[in-house]
Design goal:
- 32% of the residues lie in helices and 16% in strands.
- By secondary structure, it is an alpha/beta fold.
- The strands form 3 sheets. Strands 3-2-1-4-13 form a 5-stranded parallel sheet, sandwiched between helices.
- The two termini are 36 Å apart.
- Bound molecules: iron/sulfur cluster (SF4).
Length: 494
């Protein structure tokens, strides 16, 4: 039973970050590594703030946790210092809480009842509690391989080793299937490896979880592009079911702004992937911000990742542009006092380290030098309006035309679905108008026995959704192979 008055005695306290000056000079995670006893005491206090609501909005539903994390349950266990049981209850719904604890923007916290009013001291620091449970679990050896004691004799190919593919693979291996994950890159992890910067999640966090999956029996093949290195026919012949977890990595480009063809203008991933590779010891990055005036176009998560990466690479200046107006710190809407994620201003740790953000602006033209390299941007104020069909459109205003230095421009304006790959043509799964892979209510694509999950199905989204879809697709595949399944299925296809 939770302490119903805990939130009246303790204010929310977020995890402490390392000083910005220190962060700028290394790639280690942003948050301070506290001595375990200090961290545990602080987190127990934060968990005490949970009221164990009769209807816990944090736990599921349209605004809460897609995984259905048992948040009030493990908050209370942490409050009482029972980290072992808290670890069990957390892992009951989430394969990789150390990923979500670090990377998820926490829709659960936006949905927390205590977020309604500032007087309540703010939402329960759920994400902080989650990460602490996960970290304690690893420190105390509570995360052990879970061996399956049954064998179905069925073989499953998972294509892609990002969070959706890994969650599906772990669930299916534990259900007794022989699972092989195929990764086209040289290392495992997909976006977790080469998209997410080290300062948000150090790769050792990923590697220790991969070691657990290996010990459980999941097989991995790297440097293997299915559809090229393994033909579709071979795939069909060798496996009883296929799970496509190939992500949605086709970056949206700027096809209209004059000067886009100048050298020095790159999609965000052309910056983040080599930077992550450099952290892995693969040599100097091919797109390096060192000494450059960097302009990032796009105000979201990926833009913030480029921001922090450029700062650490030693950029001369970093400027992030957002065409939308600066959102309020809280939604100012009397009909709904709830602070609705993500329609409030999100400040990322990277923004505290250096640089500048500007809102309600757009690049009118990229200006190059005689060698054809971008050197400046011409900026104009814009406003966002609805067109006749209700679609949001960006309209330039006559206000403030400014010319600013720009030696490196990074386009972080979203993703347009899955990359074109021979595998998808060979399987004949088709694409939706959004560039994602369509599926039925059982996660099965147009190709019988071929399933899809994660960003490849949903479009670029949160790591928590990827894990939730990976778990759900595992249930569907297990049922397809054996006739029924006891595996959990937290979400349905959208
Ligand atoms: Fe606890 Fe907030 Fe969830 Fe209520 S909504 S159970 S206070 S975390």
């Amino acid at each position: 039973m939770a302490d119903p008055y805990g939130f009246l005695q303790h204010d929310r306290a977020d995890a402490e970050k390392r000083p910005a000056a220190e962060r700028r000079s290394d790639w280690r995670e942003v948050y301070r590594d506290l001595p375990p006893e200090t961290r545990d005491a602080q987190v127990r206090t934060q968990a005490t703030r949970c009221m164990d609501c009769g209807v816990p909005f944090c736990h599921s539903g349209s605004a809460g946790c897609p995984l259905g994390n048992l948040i009030p349950e493990w908050n209370d266990l942490v409050r009482r210092g029972d980290w072992g049981l808290a670890s069990d209850r957390l892992h009951a719904t989430n394969n990789f809480p150390e990923f979500t604890g670090r990377l998820c923007p926490a829709p659960c916290e936006a949905a927390c009842v205590l977020a309604i009013s500032h007087d309540a001291g703010g939402a329960v620091a759920i994400k902080r509690v989650e990460q602490a449970i996960a970290d304690v679990s690893w420190e105390q050896g509570l995360v052990r391989p879970t061996q399956s004691h049954v064998s179905s004799g069925k073989r499953v190919a998972v294509v892609g080793s990002g969070p959706a593919g890994l969650a599906a693979a772990q669930q299916l291996t534990r259900a007794g299937h022989e699972v092989t994950v195929h990764e086209r890159d040289d290392r495992l992890g997909g976006l977790l490896r080469y998209g997410i910067p080290e300062f948000k999640m150090e790769k050792k966090v990923l590697d220790r979880r991969l070691a657990q999956l290996r010990k459980e029996g999941t097989k991995f093949v790297t440097g293997c592009e299915v559809g090229v290195d393994v033909t579709v026919e071979q795939l069909r012949e060798r496996f009883d079911a296929v799970v496509l977890a190939v992500g949605a990595l086709r970056g949206r480009d700027d096809t209209t702004t004059p000067g886009r063809d100048l050298a020095g203008i790159h999609l965000a991933m052309e910056h983040l992937v080599p930077a992550n590779r450099a952290c892995e010891g693969d040599g100097a990055p091919s797109v390096d911000a060192a000494g450059k005036h960097v302009v990032i176009i796009g105000g979201g998560d990926t833009g913030a990742d480029c921001f922090g990466t450029a700062v650490r690479q030693g950029a001369a200046s970093v400027l992030q542009l957002d065409q939308y107006p600066r959102p309020p710190a809280r939604r100012d809407d009397e009909r709904s006092p709830w602070p609705v994620w993500p329609w409030v201003l999100r400040t990322y740790p990277a923004h505290e380290e250096a640089g500048e953000r500007r809102f309600a602006v757009a690049v009118e033209r990229f200006i190059g030098d005689e060698d054809g390299h971008v050197r400046q941007i011409r900026l104009r104020k814009v406003r966002v309006e609805r067109d006749a069909s209700g679609r949001r459109v960006v309209v330039p205003t006559s206000e403030e035309v400014e010319v600013l230095p720009a030696d490196l421009v990074l386009l972080a304006i979203g993703f347009e679905g899955v990359e074109h790959m021979p595998l998808l043509d060979g399987l004949g799964v088709g694409l939706t108008p959004r560039g994602t892979i369509p599926c039925g209510s059982d996660w099965q694509t147009r190709a019988p026995g071929v399933f899809v999950c994660g960003d490849a199905h949903r479009g670029a989204s949160l790591v928590v959704w990827a894990i939730a879809e990976g778990r759900s697709v595992a249930h569907a595949v297990d049922a397809f192979l054996t006739g029924s399944s006891d595996l959990p299925s937290p979400v349905i296809p959208n």
